[in-house]
Design goal:
homodimer; DNA-binding; Arc Repressor Mutant, subunit A; 40% helix; Dna Ligase, domain 1; two-stranded antiparallel sheet; alpha+beta
Chain lengths: 144, 144
DNA sequence: TTATAAATTTGTAATGATTACAAACTACAA
DNA sequence: TTGTAGTTTGTAATCATTACAAATTTATAA
């Protein structure tokens, strides 16, 4: 499906900037920040402004076309994968890993959670720690 | 137990500023921000600086004496309750509700989660939406 | 005690992500 | 073609957080 049609399904008018941002999100599973998206897309679309990226991502999130991850305090990350999954962020390298229900079945239960009469609109399961790669690096340093 | 002894158990030297901040966290279950803590404690301890509150909270979090909640993008919240529980933040009023395992049994499973060979140090389950109070307010407006 | 070193606090300045805003531009319908 | 609403853009402002060095407090050792 064309990205134009994809974002249309969320009620979002497919303007060039928006299509570019969504295309970026869908092809880069790195949970990018505004800065990263800007640095990359600015090369293709030289007139693209950072404000537009902020506006566009806000629009995506409000319409359920993307997820905003508040997993760290430095800055916000975005995710074009709106399927049920959790995230693990490494405190050393900053990488954010996806965790899918096949690896963590509890994730399947998150969509049915209830909390009194409150209206739940979003559920996020955020893990932090040290990733395997960084742990190995640490061990190597220790043995030197 | 005195707050002095409580933070000592986390290996934190109980200086007056630290005791004041921890006392605030333990008596205000509102998941305060640095700003809120500062505004309140500044009245008692006029010399207390915001930087010290930042330093102190960082120390608490690093030593497991408090939780840092990244549930929204505006600013960070802190929680002196380190028992297993989740949070629900209302998008309208900004209030953060505690969710304890008795109301949401899945929370009990969070401490035993595993993800490959990665070293998990922290797990947070964050819900957002509209709280009961704010939904009622909305309904009242609609019927007027 | 007293002197000295180490740790901590404080206030200010700097940083950097995010937002506000108004002017310029674009899409689209009459 | 023209008008209007919607969108983008660049700049300036905001505001939470951090850096930093001086001042202060606490711990240590003589």
């Amino acid at each position: 499906m064309r990205v134009e049609d994809y974002i249309l399904k969320f009620g979002i008018k497919p303007l060039v900037q928006r299509v570019a941002v969504m295309k970026y999100l869908l092809t880069h599973k790195t949970h990018p920040t505004v800065e990263e998206i800007y640095e990359s897309l600015h090369k293709e679309i030289s007139t693209l402004s950072k404000t537009t990226i902020y506006n566009t991502l806000k629009l995506f999130v409000e319409n359920g076309a993307a997820l905003q991850l508040n997993i760290e305090d430095k800055c916000v990350h975005f995710d074009g994968d709106i399927s049920a999954h959790a995230h693990f962020m490494c405190q050393h390298c900053g990488m954010i890993y996806d965790i899918f229900p096949s690896k963590m079945p509890i994730i399947n239960e998150l969509s049915t959670l209830e909390f009194g009469s409150h209206n739940i609109q979003n559920v996020q399961l955020n893990l932090t720690g040290v990733c395997e790669k960084c742990m190995k690096k640490q061990k190597n340093k220790e043995t030197k």
